[in-house]
Amino acid sequence: MSTENHEHNHMNELQISDADFNRMVKFVHDNYGIDLHAKRQLIQSRLGTVIKRKGYQSFREYVDFLLADGSGDDINELLNKLKTNYTYFQRETESFDYFVDTILPDVTAKHTGDKTLSIWSAACSSGEEPYNVTMYMMDYFGPHWKEWDARMLATDLSVDVLGKAQRGVYQLPDNMPEKWKRSYFTPSGDRHQISQEVKNNVIFRQFNLMDPIRFKRKFDIIFCRNVMIYFDQPTKTALINRMYDATVPGGYLIISLSENLPPNTKWKRCTSAIFKK
């Protein structure tokens, strides 16, 4: 019985043809740099439901619509279904240890004159990373925090996750230090709201990492963690080079421990996931 049901369900699932699959993969890669060519099953199962809900008869109809005149919202929905916006506080603490022990003393020494730091959290997802970086900085500067302008730029492709980030309400992990809970959050039901002071330090913007990086200033530090896993090698290399050009000499790039930079990069490795220009 269960086998028949399984077969039946499988028949119910919309199938995507090679041609439509290839069109969609090319479109997403060319516009957003995300490599989906090995994700056919995922596309079929996750998008099938969206397509039915929106009243399309087939993948072809949906792909036609997307390529011709899909709005930002349609594209966002597509990318949200296919990417895992998975992030949390204190992710990869060894990188944060290096940030506090080595990077901050180095960059603040260079900026004793203007007391301004320029930091970018690229692909900030729901905001934990830039808020967390801010907490580490507030701890580091202590009573001198008010003297510095260390406002961070935090960007993501997805408007949905940026909305969550701006709301700043989280389920806190069990290992969140009590000191942080008290200083940087206020309870909000069974969750916690990020404090206004931390929130004020982060500027959220929508940004596609495939676009030219043209922000007002070059960066002292770029966090770009758990993004490049979605990109193929040429896309990754091009992004890393754009980030190199968008960084001040002696600036830092922090990636995830599970990622690596393409070979023959201009960046110099400091430690497993941290590089310097």
Descriptive notes:
The model is unreliable at 1-11 (pLDDT under 50). The chain has helices at 2-12, 18-32, 40-53, 59-69, 72-82, 93-110, 128-141, 159-167, 178-184, 196-199, 233-245, and strands at residues 119-122, 152-156, 169-170, 185-188, 191-194, 202-206, 219-223, 247-254, 268-271, 274-276. The chain is built from 11 helices and 10 strands. It folds into 2 domains: 2-82, Orthogonal Bundle (Chemotaxis Receptor Methyltransferase Cher, domain 1), CATH 1.10.155.10; 93-276, Vaccinia Virus protein VP39 (Rossmann fold, 3-Layer(aba) Sandwich), CATH 3.40.50.150. The strands form 2 sheets. The chain has a 7-stranded mixed sheet. A 3-stranded antiparallel sheet has the order 3-5-4. The chain is an alpha/beta fold and 277 residues long.
End-to-end distance:
62 Å
- Structural class determined from secondary elements: alpha/beta
Structural domain tally: 2
CATH fold title of the largest domain:
Rossmann fold
Label this structure with key terms.
277 residues, alpha/beta, Chemotaxis Receptor Methyltransferase Cher, domain 1, Rossmann fold, seven-stranded mixed beta sheet, three-stranded antiparallel beta sheet, 10 strands, globular
What is shown here, in short?
The protein has 277 residues and is an alpha/beta fold.
Break the fold down into its secondary structure elements and pairings.
Elements: H1 2-12, H2 18-32, H3 40-53, H4 59-69, H5 72-82, H6 93-110, E1 119-122, H7 128-141, E2 152-156, H8 159-167, E3 169-170, H9 178-184, E4 185-188, E5 191-194, H10 196-199, E6 202-206, E7 219-223, H11 233-245, E8 247-254, E9 268-271, E10 274-276
Parallel strand pairs: 1-2, 1-7, 2-6, 7-8
Antiparallel strand pairs: 3-5, 4-5, 8-10, 9-10
Helix pairs in contact: 2-4
